[in-house]
Amino acid sequence: MTWAILERIKIGKPTSVGLVTGAVAGLATVTPSAGYISPLGGVAIGVIAAGVCFTAVLTIKQRFRIDDSLDVFAVHGVGGMTGSLVLVPFASLAFGGDGLGAGTIADQFGAQALGIAVTVVWSAVLTYVLARAAALVVPMRVDDQAERDGLDLTSHGERAYEFD
Predict the structure, then answer these.
(1) d(CA 29, CA 69)
(2) In whole angstroms, how far apart are CA 108 and each of 12, 67, 75, 86, 142?
(3) DSSP sequence for 28-81
(4) Which tens digit of pLDDT belongs to each residue from 1-27?
(5) Single pTM value for the model
């Protein structure tokens, strides 16, 4: 619901794709903390997810001009990282969660942040290495003419959409 409000403010109307993307953003963000928070904490994380992921979608598309199909990184990546960080306060007993175990909120927040950082570095390095290895076997880009003609036609021999 919050995503639809943000979409209406930014675009002028909510869309069905936006509704589904907002639902997925909420689910991706709440997943890291699902077993440790209260239902009200889940609602709060959903509201946080809408704002953070919607902003990430706009930033990736408009500021960085990256064509992220289905907003995968902005929704799943940013949502998952956000969910890992907001787990800390919402899992605490003060917010109705199951508790954090030994240590302080600051200790757990640091551990969560370190886990995110290690995962981001590992994923970036491994993706780079695997992409370079794949580039030795198959080209990573099509030529300019194929890109202008459309990949559906040049790669698959058919058009996905007919515009008359």
Answers:
(1) 19
(2) 40, 35, 24, 11, 46
(3) HHHGGGTTTS-HHHHHHHHHHHHHHHHHHHHIIIIIS----GGGHIIIIIHHHH
(4) 677 777 777 777 888 888 889 999 999
(5) 0.81
Residue recorded with tokens 């109307």: 13
d(CA 13, CA 4): 8
31-66 as b/e: b if 16+ CB within 10 A: bbbeebbeeebeebbbebbbebbbebbeebeeeeee
- Residue 114, both tokens: 């370190």
Q: Tell me what the pLDDT averaged over the chain comes to.
A: 88
Handedness of CA 25, 82, 68, 13 (dihedral sign): positive
Instruction: Specify the pLDDT at position 11.
Output: 72
Domains (ranges, CATH) in the chain?
Answer: 2-140 (1.10.3430.10)
Each residue's pLDDT tens digit, 50-78: 999 999 999 998 899 887 878 899 999 99
